[in-house]
Amino acid sequence: MQGKAYQHYIEEQIRDAEERGVFANLPGFGKPLKLDDNPYAGDKALGYSLLKSNGYAPAEIELIKEIRADRERLEKRLERVVQRKNYLRSRRVPPFPSERRAFNTSVEKTAEEYARGLRELNRKILTLNVKAPPALHQQMLDIDRLVAQFRASCPLYKDVM
Fold first, then answer.
1. Degrees, nearest 5: CA angle 135-78-69
2. Nearest by Cα to 52 from 61, 43, 39
3. Which of 3, 26, 62, 133 sits a CA distance of 20 to 30 A from 19?
4. How many of the other CB atoms lie within 10 Å of CB of 70?
5. Mean pLDDT, to the nearest integer, of 7-21?
6. Mean per-residue pLDDT, 141-161
7. Residue 43 — very low, low, confident or very high, per pLDDT cuts 50/70/90?
């Protein structure tokens, strides 16, 4: 048999076997292929496999998830203060002095908590950057710039008694 004829013969044999159901009872039939082998894991492959099968991830990945969750938590706190500012400034009746004082106090407290939270995030990012391969590194946060942006988005009331 030559080139094409041989190829057609093989395809025909495979089709006949499929029709007879030879491939229907193979292990893993109808299930996704397991493509979990990581050629870069090296001697840590067994450990990574155990972590994954028990619902965990390598420490670097867990730290990335933690950083992301902490950042989202900080942003949600800021959103609440910005929403309060928008509500107070959009009312027909201007805010009462007690509301203005409470808002200013809230902005100051939130800015302090935000700066503290960002410092903690930078500590975690530094830990990640030391432990993880370069592909997983994250940029350090510019705390002064981020706090200034928050303060600019929520200016304090000046006429508080």
1. 35
2. 61
3. 3
4. 15
5. 86
6. 93
7. confident
- Report the C-alpha gap between 141 and 89 in whole angstroms: 30
Task: Write the pLDDT tens digit of every residue in 90-125.
Answer: 999 999 999 999 999 999 999 999 999 999 999 999
The domain segmentation of the chain, as residue ranges, is 59-153
Please report the sign of the dihedral spanned by the C-alpha atoms of residue 116, residue 118, residue 124, residue 126. negative
Tokens, residue 98: 């007690």
Chain centroid to Cα 41, Å, comes to 22
Helices (H) and strands (E) in the chain, counts: 5, 0
* Cβ 160 vs Cβ 101: under 8 Å: yes
Contact 112, 54 (CB under 8 A): no
User: What token pair was written down for 22?
Assistant: 């030879």
Q: What is the DSSP string of 59-105?
A: HHHHHHHHHHHHHHHHHHHHHHHHHHHHHHHHSSSPPPHHHHHHHHH
Q: At what angle do helices 97-131 and 59-90 cross, to 10 degrees?
A: 160
pLDDT at 154 over 80: yes
